[in-house]
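Translate sequence into structure tokens.
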Amino acid sequence: MIARIRQEKSKILALTDQMMVSGTNFAIGILITRFLGVENYGRFALYWMVFLFLQGLCTAYIGLPAQVLSNQAENKAIYLEENNRLGKLVLLGFLLLLYPSFFIYNTIADASFGYGYWLFPLVIVLFLKQEMNRKYFYAKLATHKVVAIDFFAYLLQVPALVLLIIFSEFNLNSLLLTLACTGLISQVVFTFIKAPVKSSFQMKNLPITANWVYAKHLILTTVLQWFSGNFILITAGGIIGLAAVGIIRVLQNIMGVLHVLFLTLENVVPVKASILLNNHSKKHMFTYFKKVALVTGIVYGLLLLLLKLFGAQILELLYGAAYAQHTNLLDLFIGLYILIFLGTLAQLMLKTLKLNYSIFIAYLLTVLFAFLLAHPLLEAFAIKGVIIGFAILQLITLSVYFFTLKRALS
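Result follows.
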């Protein structure tokens, strides 16, 4: 009974934590749009794509191995410690790469919006480390510690930004300064609450090769995934303008409540599924996935129904009456997110079974599609072409996923 209570407590904490993280990102999107305008939100979103790209690489090479490979290691604690050290080295390399890259882009495009522009690389690296820290604690089943570090990294952002708005100091520069401060505070908290583990400081003990063997297809997939989806969005910025990108991001922000479920699944399911697979069988793992699909599917369906029924009112309440006209686009997103839900579950199962090559193939096909049809879709359907393109990408990946899983589980 005690074990059961602890298990349910861990799930509740994981869901609460993801609500805190996603809720903060949701609130920031609203604040930027409301007080700085949809174009500035589109501008911030395009810059933030650098973080999303690097986050995918770090999750593949550091985060997922922490959750999956640590359960197969002879000493889980030592593996996680060495994996954490490897993550720091990777981030140092990213930081050294980002600053000259931002300098070159700023010089060519004259795109600087103040001192915050030079905070962007630091903010990106701090929150990449935050994601690694979260995976570290999730792998150790220390969900309460994830909540602790996310409180400082994310939840503190909103009251700080509200104060900036009250004192008329809110802009993209002060936003990035706030993110840098909360990110630094969270890193200090992580250092203090992480249990000390004795390990060597030799490079040969870092899981460089083991992580690469596991993640090589996922890393390539991340590159392809970023180019497939974001190529359409970046192309939209050039063809139909930054305001259109901002509107798409506004609608994605509305759908962000559903990402609470997705990200909770990604943080919890791989650990449990890999334990069942390694200690029992594929049948036990598949039964677990069916249970997860049923429970989360009911919740997910109800949330989509609420968005369908009250979409116009939600848009008007959060962003203003001018945005209620985009309800038809929100309806398209609802259909898109049904496909994303199915794809998320299928991809988690493939990662647990280490069938990462099929994810790579799926995204290779989506990149080819994006490069070939992004321009025609946008020219023919304008802003609707972005969502239609996203839906076609999801159908392509789902087809590859289900074909691979059918062969693997038969």
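Note: The chain is about 85% helix and 0% strand.
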